[in-house]
Amino acid sequence: MKGDRAAAARLISIVEGGGRAAATVMRSIRRRPSRAYVVGVTGPFGVGKSTLLDAIVKMYRMRGLKVGVVAVDPSSKISGGALLGDRIRLISNIGDEGVFFRSLSNRGNLGGLSKCTGDVVRILDAYGSDLIVIETVGAGQSDVDVAKLAHTTLVVLTPAIGDEIQLMKSGLIEIADIFVVNKADLPDADLMEEMLKLSMPKDGWVRPVIKTIAKVGVGVQEVVESIDKHRKYIESKISPRGS
Ligand SMILES: Nc1nc2c(ncn2[C@@H]2O[C@H](COP(=O)(O)OP(=O)(O)O)[C@@H](O)[C@H]2O)c(=O)[nH]1
Ligand SMILES: [Mg+2]
């Protein structure tokens, strides 16, 4: 709570371990009201979530915000290398004391990953983060759960995901507050954009569809502006008089 980085890292490890020690940590952390704004970034594997996240974090850092990043990795054989990939890609923000990055894996944490993510968010909040970004692989229950933790949920897709039906079935459409069509340098980005624009508003919020080329930073500014706009929108719903 004094902003000690090493202490925060240690507390996260304790919470990952679970059991009595974790419960004790969380009991004292939960007494403190949360204040950080939480953004979820989800979508299928390889669409460019980490790349986009990295660019978004950089923009918020330029505003002087302290940022926490939680990458939830399902640690399957397929994505075994993703953990390292994420670490390397996020290197542009590593070494920056204003960014706290942590990967979580569900190894030995069966069924508890979502709970653990929530606890880690609370710890990074107590540590003093202004903004916390959670990245999940768009593969089921953990995404739906993460959407509950996040104030604003970004669903990242690419033009290549042509199969509309499969997309609907994945449940990703329902949880989005903002759609991002990344890899807009590939063909058919407009098609994907148009398709997503047909989706229903969520709680009266008309969900923006933003095309990006995250690897070169195109459209990232617009994504950040949409996050800010959505934040204002939900805050106006919670306290209409701004109190
Ligand atoms: N063509 C293209 N490739 C991109 C873009 N953004 C990211 N990538 C690449 O897509 C791959 C997967 O990116 P990554 O951020 O790891 O995806 P994640 O699995 O969703 O986190 C990497 O090779 C990136 O360089 C983009 O806008 N256009
Ligand atoms: Mg990633």
Structural class per helix/strand content? Answer: alpha/beta
User: Class in CATH?
Assistant: Alpha Beta
How would you write the strand order of the largest sheet?
A: 3-2-4-1-5-6-7
Whole-number tally of structural domains: 1
Spans where pLDDT lies below 50 across 5 or more residues: 76-89
The small-molecule ligands in this entry are: guanosine-5'-diphosphate, magnesium ion
Q: Which CATH architecture?
A: 3-Layer(aba) Sandwich
The CATH superfamily is identified as P-loop containing nucleotide triphosphate hydrolases
Q: Note the overall shape.
A: globular
Radius of gyration, in Å, reads: 17 Å
Q: Distance between termini?
A: 25 Å
Which percent range fits the helix content?
A: 40-55%
- How much is the average pLDDT? 84
Major β-sheet profile: 7 strands, parallel
| Element-by-element helix/strand order | HHEHEHEHEHEHHEHEH
